Amino acid sequence: MANHIVERVTERIAPVIEDPFVLVDVEYEKKGGDYILSILVDKPGGITVDDTAELTDIISPLLDTIEPDPFPERYLLEVSSPGLERPLKTAASLAEAVGSYINVSLYKPIDKVKHFEGDLLAFDGQVLTLMFMDKGQEKTVDIPYQTVAKARLAVKF
Fold it and tell me: Does 1.25.40.10 match the CATH number of domain 2-80?
């Protein structure tokens, strides 16, 4: 159900998110007792509070025009920046992240490991090449793109 809602909302709002803004992600989930529809938007230089208010004024009325209404219950609309650990949901977003420190979760393990965190050295559209630390040793792993369950930018400590 949540996937259906995300798809319908994305179809409806993506065309109105115009330059310099970029639609990064749409999420719908229950947090505590509330359903939250999160619209993550960015622009070069980052999002301001005024930007989120402006985008909320554009997006909110559009959500009421989706027929049939995909929302089973009341929800809260949250328009915000994706933050430092933004999701990397598309091949294009991964390509843009080459040179960045990322976290990757896999559908199936590589050498018994399903989670990697390290520097994305390369991505050719099919394979991610990631340099990571394993017991103090620098290692490199090639990860087939189709095995990636989730990827996001990560903060290096």
Answer: no
Tokens representing 123 are 């991505």
Assess contact for 100 and 155: CB atoms under 8 A: no
Helices (H), 1-152: 2-13, 49-63, 91-96
For 102, the 3-state DSSP assignment is strand
Q: What is the mean pLDDT of each run of 10 residues along the chain (157 residues)?
A: 87 93 90 91 89 94 91 91 85 91 94 94 96 93 95 87
As annotated, the residues of the chain forming the CATH 2.30.30.180 domain(s) are: 91-153
CATH architecture of the domain 91-153 equals: Roll (2.30)
Q: How far apart are CA 116 and CA 125, in angstroms?
A: 18
